[in-house]
Automatic annotation (TrEMBL):
Residues making up the signal peptide according to the UniProt record: none
Transferrin receptor-like dimerisation domain span: 653-761
GO biological process: intracellular iron ion homeostasis; receptor internalization; transferrin transport
Family: Belongs to the peptidase M28 family. M28B subfamily.
UniProt GO MF annotations: transferrin receptor activity
One cellular-component annotation, GO: external side of plasma membrane
Protein name, as recorded: Transferrin receptor protein 1
Length: 792
């Protein structure tokens, strides 16, 4: 009977079968820094096999079950009733203990999440949406934001420094105080720091003052060449110079900061064989002191460029490698004073219209001539640093193994008040607010929320990208959205956002529900959207957005937004990024703007974890694809009419792929319309289809080492539809780079990527698609279908 009781107890008091687990695994060197995240649904609770032992009576003689036959019927009935009573008692004990597992005990000393509660099939009733909105607005307070801003402000917290680590410990402590599961993620990354002797810039043989700023990941060398002014160093600026027959080869190019990333400027110059790039802040764009230095990086990518495509857990495990985004030429920032010394003395041709609108003193903004020789010496030092990402999680109650991430950069080169302090403060305040709603107000999020504090963001989202590379497969399956809190405030009179098209509808509805910080009688939408909200608010997502690797490398619908100024650029990456300056740039509305930004992120988050159905609009990508198809079709027809493109290049397959996605998206929208959205399991099935879409646009034909941002619609590289449009432009101009065979190859691969995404969304196989296309079109054949998919 004791054995039966033990068995029953194990069956009904065992842990649930389905759960998600994060493990800390020790690597071969004994280094506990290697963090491995495993997602599983294995049954860990195993009932031990119970052998039949030899029973003994009170006289220690063997007692055989066969002697039961000699018992009276009354005795046998007693045994049966006793067993049934034990079974019922065991069942009740198991049921009660099983219910008690809803309150999972948090292990505050655990470096990672050990267990996430299982998925429950039954519905979990939570507060309605109007209650949630009111609670968020009430509990997210400016007093707490002020307290966080003071606590997380730091004069020195560069990545991997003691100041950075101290902030990480503070954030970890806050998460633990809120009752969240916490862990850290450790990486060893390579970064550039200034050498023992400063980098130097010489003009006509004279040293141009002290050069304190620097650009991480610049080529380390000394070069010399004639000066050439190239406006902002954008691709269109260099095309303008080429149209004027200006020779760029071997020149030291001077460009203004702003309008594009430092990395883009240097890459554009290097592609045209310039010898070096100098970047300066023009007073027309920046309101900073003449001697204020600029800091930044020039890696045309994100993450550690010396472990491209794989995580920097320990460099000794990996062979030497470099990202293709590292520049081959040196690059350096100079101050306004240094730029004035050089630019005011340049001779040569007059610059194109619109290029002389700068405000450097006594400067005509001429292009420069062969006698204006500049020498650039870059002596940065490559070092290895240990960095930590910090995480806290709020567990969901139904789809616990599905989660979104809210992230903020923690490090900065200088004070970094707007760059990192504001975002970190809002991250902690949102974590406090939502955990308080769960503990005290009955809010039960259906999905989990991970709060992440990233390190080494100043070097190109290094901490965040290394985490993505480390857990790529698991995150692809379970993560459904990312929201960035970086640089959310740098002004007050403009609101800009960059996001996946899947999130456009959710962002627009959120803007209609949040009051404007400038006029409480208006919503954000009324204040900033104008007659066309997408045109007024939305901007392309690029390297300057910390959400970019989540969107284009991992394929996760992501959102980044900011309150900014339409006048001067905020001095990010300088020592002037302080609380006093931010107040001036926001017209002393920093706290109002911070609370509003917190409400935007909070409402987006609550909507994504509260509803049974994910608020991601898959139909929006139809118009994005259509726009690219229209551009490509127009240019293909034009090039074929001029004889520059062979007639064998057909738009048929791209049009068919676009149609397939349109039909699949429409079918899903119809299925949602006809579904019972209170059915948790049915919604989970639909959500799984929705979660496949963004990742479906990642090209499977490119190497992460060569092209990290594989998204064919929003990424960068020759695999994208934007690159196909540019390639057709090159064919128009007859440039040598216009390789028609390469175009045909990329055209076929991009087409099949779109078709593959449509197939996944619709649940179709390639054979199904081929059969449908062949039966719907008189001009299609199986051999043509195979030819389209063949690399030319």
């Amino acid at each position: 009977m004791d054995q039966a009781r033990t068995t029953i107890s194990k069956i009904f008091n065992g842990e649930p079968r389905s759960y998600t687990r994060f493990n800390l695994t020790q690597n071969m060197e004994g280094d506990n820094s290697h963090v491995e995240m495993k997602l599983s649904s294995d049954m860990d609770d195993e009932v031990e096999a119970n052998g039949v032992g030899e029973n003994v009576n009170q006289h220690n003689r063997p007692y055989y079950p066969s002697k039961l036959k000699q018992r009276s019927p009354k005795t046998i009935c007693g045994y049966v009733i006793g067993i049934l009573l034990l079974f019922i008692i065991g069942y009740l004990i198991g049921y009660l203990s099983n219910r008690s597992t809803d309150k999972t005990e948090i292990k505050s000393d655990c470096p990672v999440i050990n267990e996430i509660a299982p998925v429950r099939a039954e519905a979990v009733y939570s507060l309605d949406w109007s209650d949630l909105r009111a609670l968020l607005k009430k509990k997210l307070t400016t007093n707490n934001i002020i307290s966080n801003l003071k606590e997380f402000s730091s004069a020195s917290h560069q990545a991997g420094s003691t100041g950075d680590e101290a902030l990480a410990n503070k954030i970890m402590g806050k998460f633990k105080t809120f009752g969240m599961n916490t862990w850290t993620d450790e990486h060893y990354v390579k970064v550039h720091e200034p050498g023992s002797s400063n980098n130097r810039v010489l003009f006509r043989g004279n040293v141009m003052g002290t050069t304190e700023g620097y650009l991480a990941y610049s080529a380390l060398k000394t070069v010399q060449g004639a000066a050439l002014y190239a406006h902002y160093g954008r691709a269109e600026d260099f095309r303008r110079l080429q149209e004027l027959n200006v020779d760029i080869n071997g020149k030291v190019v001077l460009v203004r900061a702003g309008l594009s990333s430092f990395a883009d400027k240097v890459a554009n110059a290097a592609n045209l064989n310039a010898s070096a790039v100098l970047i300066y802040p023009d007073p027309v764009n920046y309101n900073i002191k003449d001697d204020t230095a600029l800091f930044g990086h020039v890696h045309l990518g994100t993450g550690d460029p010396y472990t491209p495509g794989f995580p920097s857990f320990n460099h000794t495990q990996f062979p030497p490698a470099q990202s293709s985004g590292l520049p081959s030429i040196p690059a350096q920032t100079i101050t306004i004073r240094q730029a004035t010394e050089i630019m005011s003395k340049l001779g040569g041709r007059t610059s194109p219209d619109g290029w002389s609108d700068g405000m450097l003193r006594d400067t005509m903004y001429e292009l420069g001539d062969d006698g204006d020789i500049i020498t650039v010496e870059v002596k940065n030092v490559l070092i290895q640093k240990k960095i930590h990402n910090v995480f806290g999680v709020i567990k969901g109650y139904t789809d616990t193994d599905r989660y979104m991430v809210i992230g903020a950069q923690r490090d900065a080169w200088g004070p970094g008040y707007a760059r990192s302090t504001v975002g970190t403060s809002l991250l902690v305040e949102l974590a406090r607010t939502i955990t308080d709603m769960i503990k005290n107000d009955g809010f039960k999020p259906k999905r989990s929320i991970i709060f992440a504090s990233w390190s080494a963001g100043e070097f190109g989202s290094v901490g965040a990208t290394e985490w993505l590379e480390g857990y790529l497969t698991s995150l692809n399956l379970k993560m459904f959205s990312y929201v960035s809190l970086d640089e959310v405030i740098s002004g007050f009179d403009s609101f800009k956002a960059a996001a996946s098209p899947l999130l456009y509808e959710l962002l627009e509805s959120t803007m209609k529900q949040v009051s404007s910080p400038l006029d409480a009688t208006k919503s954000l939408h009324e204040q900033f959207a104008g007659s066309n909200w997408e045109k007024s608010v939305m901007e392309p997502m690029g390297l300057s957005h910390s959400a970019y690797p989540f969107q284009t490398f991992l394929g996760i619908p992501s959102l980044s937004f900011r309150f900014t100024s339409s006048a001067k650029l905020y001095p990010f990456g300088t020592i002037e990024d302080t609380d006093q300056n931010l107040e001036r740039y926001t017209s002393y509305n920093t706290l109002k703007l911070a609370k509003t930004a917190g409400e935007v992120v909070g409402l987006v988050t609550l909507r994504l974890v509260h509803d049974n159905l994910l608020k991601l609009n898959v139909a929006k990508y139809t118009s994005v694809i259509r726009n690219y198809v229209s551009q490509i079709r127009s240019k293909v027809e034009s090039r074929q009419m001029s004889g520059r493109l062979p007639s064998t290049v057909t738009m048929q397959w791209l049009l068919s792929a676009h149609g397939s996605y349109d039909r699949a998206a429409s079918s899903l929208v119809s299925a949602i319309r006809n579904s019972d959205l209170d059915d948790v399991e049915q919604c989970r099935i639909i959500n799984n289809r929705i979660m496949r879409v963004e990742g479906g646009f990642l090209s499977p034909y490119v190497s992460p080492r060569e092209s990290l941002f594989r998204h064919i619609l929003l990424g960068s590289g020759s695999h994208t539809l934007a690159a196909l449009v540019d390639h057709l432009e090159a064919i128009k101009g007859g440039l040598e780079s216009a390789d028609i065979d390469q175009f045909k190859n990329q055209f076929a691969l991009a087409t099949w990527t779109i078709q593959g995404c449509a197939n996944a969304l619709a649940g179709e196989s390639p054979d199904t698609w081929r059969y449908r296309v062949n039966t719907e079109s008189d001009s299609c054949s199986g051999s043509q279908w195979m030819e389209m998919c063949t690399i030319v």
